[in-house]
Amino acid sequence: MRTNLDFSPLFRSSIGFERMLNALEDAGRAETIDNWPPYDIVKTGENDYRIAMAVAGFSQDELAITQEQNLLIVSGQKDNGEDVQYLHRGIAGRSFQRQFELADHVKVVDAGLVNGLLTIDLKHEIPEEMKPRQIEIGTGHAMPKAETKQIEAETQAA
């Protein structure tokens, strides 16, 4: 059972979250999900992540990794120049393109291909100006005491 959520109240009451809300709406509209090639996303540290993708049969020359602003695109283009007659074909060799939405300040650190497993290491690096900082409280001068003025009232004898 599929439930469509209406995010319009959140759009009216939030500022700066448009990208996240649009991503949630787009995820609800996804009709077909291609699950090939299979992959894992692992959190390897406090700010470190790894994508491991099974790309058996692909060489480094047939794979491409591109990082745009907040999008990581992994694609594979198999060169089927050979004229081979298969009796059974169980190893997928089709071209693919998989996209991963990245949070702000997530960068690709490293990528490698070993034994048919493509690994992409990512790091969430928060810029220094955005990190919390401690403000030192100085021993400044004390505020001068304000003089209290008293209103003199004339007293009348009765």
From TrEMBL:
Start and end residues of each SHSP domain: 30-140
Record-linked SUPFAM superfamilies: HSP20-like chaperones
Keyword terms, alphabetized: Plasmid, Stress response
Tagged with keyword Ion transport: no
Tree of life domain: Bacteria
One Pfam family here: HSP20
Sequence segments annotated as region (Disordered): 139-158
InterPro entries according to UniProt: A-crystallin/Hsp20_dom, ACD_IbpA/B, HSP20-like_chaperone
PANTHER family per the UniProt record, alphabetical: PTHR47062, SMALL HEAT SHOCK PROTEIN IBPA (PTHR47062:SF1)
Family assignment from sequence similarity: Belongs to the small heat shock protein (HSP20) family.
Protein name: HSP20 family heat shock protein
Organism: Rhizobium etli
